[in-house]
Design a protein that fits this description.
Length: about 375
């Protein structure tokens, strides 16, 4: 008998286990008649601020909008430059571009794929207004080194912590933190949602105004903002899930340890992710093949056996068609370019079973003979 497939991600397993609780939350919001911001959002923001160890947590409409509104709060715009890693999700640089500023791309470290502080230092110019550090795959970037580089130029460091909710002090290390509640994230919502964190009262006030068309109170617009508000329903459902996050992250870390035990001593031509330095949350479990030419055949081999795998990310940002005119040219950021050719993400979601992990590992070993 053919075994059932192993999905790359299956959100329904966890949600169905909470179905009665989530349904009760949904009914409560329906009865309240308040669907945008309001008490549910305020209560969720308060819980997040306490959980993350920050003074302010401001709910917004998505992780992308969290980045955009944070940059807007800093007044970044046309003629400015913002340094960010070349190997990350598109939204990091896309948000910079949407302000009118220019994203400047830095290379990444070969082990964690987080941004390389030395490359960031080389990318700084007189036009640089900020640095964005991405906590890639749930592993915090080397913030001490990045903050030291930025401090020498008086530059703020923003944290793109979309994949790292729950990592140690993520969102509390830079001037502002930006999170996503996209359904696949550590704390996944039921649609889009995001969060901006900061300890600065003035920046928090600006973000709150900017998310509501730049109006600190109704029909009084001190800034030109946007519609970046978090829905009350998303906040209510996420607040119900937040107390479970520690257990969910524990499962992710346990899955990573099991992969390491099953694949680490097998003499395979792959590199496994390390545990990281600040509570890696393993939002993705990304292996690196020594020969990048075998990455896509491995993915196909797994798919033929009903095992999901994904490529994060197939092209670095400086080689995306919309950013290619900005430079640098191909070959200039070799670690990011190699990572795009050589990496593959295996299933790691919390409800994955030991039997499924064993099947994934056995298939990877079988591919290499």
């Amino acid at each position: 008998m053919t075994p059932p497939p192993v999905p790359f991600f299956d959100r329904a397993r966890g949600d169905l286990a909470m179905q009665d609780e989530l349904s009760a939350v949904f009914q409560s919001v329906i009865r309240s008649g308040q669907y945008i911001l309001g008490r549910e959002v305020e209560a969720f923001e308060s819980r997040c601020a306490a959980y993350l160890g920050v003074r302010h947590a401001i709910g917004v409409s998505s992780g992308t909008d969290a980045l955009l509104v944070a940059l807007m709060a800093l007044g970044i715009g046309a003629g400015d430059e913002v340094v960010c890693p070349a190997y990350t999700f598109f939204a990091t640089a896309g948000a910079v571009h949407r302000t009118g500023a220019r994203p400047v791309f830095a290379d990444v470290l070969p082990g964690s794929f987080n941004v390389d502080p030395a490359s960031v230092a080389r990318a700084l110019t007189e036009r640089t207004r900020a640095v964005i550090a991405v906590h890639l795959f749930g592993d915090c970037a080397p913030m001490d080194e990045l903050l030291a580089v930025a401090r020498g130029r008086g530059l703020p460091v923003l944290e793109d912590a979309a994949q790292a909710f729950g990592a140690d002090r993520a969102g509390a290390l830079g001037l502002m933190g930006c999170f996503s509640f996209f359904p696949t994230k550590n704390l996944g919502g039921f649609g889009d949602g995001g969060l901006v964190t900061t300890d600065r009262d003035d920046l928090a006030d600006r973000v709150r105004s900017l998310r509501a068309q730049g109006a600190p109170r109704k029909h009084h617009h001190t800034l030109v903002g946007g519609n970046f508000r978090l829905d009350a329903l998303q906040a209510a459902l996420l607040r119900r899930k937040l107390p479970q996050l520690g257990a969910l992250l524990g499962r992710r870390r346990g899955h990573a340890a099991r992969y390491a035990a099953l694949l680490g001593g097998a003499g395979l031509p792959i590199a496994l992710p390390g545990a990281g330095s600040a509570g890696h949350t393993f939002n993705q479990y990304v292996i690196r093949l020594e020969d990048g030419c075998r990455r896509d055949p491995l993915r196909s081999f797994l798919a033929e056996r009903g095992i999901g795998a994904e490529v994060y990310y197939p092209a670095p940002l400086h080689l995306q068609p919309c950013f290619a005119p900005l430079g640098p040219p191909a070959g200039s950021l070799p670690v990011a370019e190699a990572a795009a050719r050589e990496t593959l993400a295996l299933p790691i979601f919390p409800e994955l079973t030991d039997e499924e992990i064993g099947r994934v590992a056995a298939a990877v070993r079988a591919f290499f003979g």
